[in-house]
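Re: that chain you flagged

S.,

Sorry for the slow reply, it's been a week of failed gels. I finally had a moment to sit down with the sequence you sent. For the record, here it is as I used it:
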Amino acid sequence: MTEITDFLSNSLSFGLFISLVCYWLASIIYMKTKFFLFAPLLVSCAFIIILLVVLKIPYEKYLDGAQFLYYLMTPCTVALAIPLYRQFSKLKENALAIVLGIIAGVLANALFILAFCAIFKIGHTEYVSILPKSITTPIGVALSNQNGGVESVTILLITIAGNMANIFGSIFCKLFRIKEPVAQGVACGTTGHAMGTAKAFAMGEVQGAMSGLSIAVCGLLTVIILPFFVNLI
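Prediction finished late last night. Pasting the structure tokens below so you have them in one place:
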């Protein structure tokens, strides 16, 4: 087992390989069951964690091989401009509602975290690590580091928020009777960044385009608004 662990740990393609295989297997499970808690993103993360623990492979070694996927996040985000261009008429028709919806989402997120940390007496370091949980990872990590937060905590919470939006996005839209595609897309993108956008695209192209727009606007607004909340705890 030790030889296998050493071999896999030193393989530059190991992280990429298991990421793709775990997601593939998770997709098959979801297609077979159609159970919402078996969302591919969530199940593949669980598979990777279990595999790393069982084989006793350090996360840093896994990341060395999987970082190629991390680098693809930026061009993938930029590529969201294509469906947005196709739905540009929707954007013009609903520009004010979209912007106000994203602002409401950003403020609601910040106020909820402020109240939560105040009630449970959570320290400043943890507080600033939690604040950027609903924006895309590169911006969230930069804001966390800039304000003295813990990068790993921020990444974990961004991942959790994204998975929650991916799993429950369409369910909450049905529960609260949100039927307008633009509103559905804004909700998914504002709360769940790229993972929420993946769910939005599964719901429809309009939803996906609006969710992609929300990622960028939500990140920009968080950069502007966050300094007003940082020193409140």
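What I noticed first: The longest helix spans residues 205-230.

Talk soon,
D.
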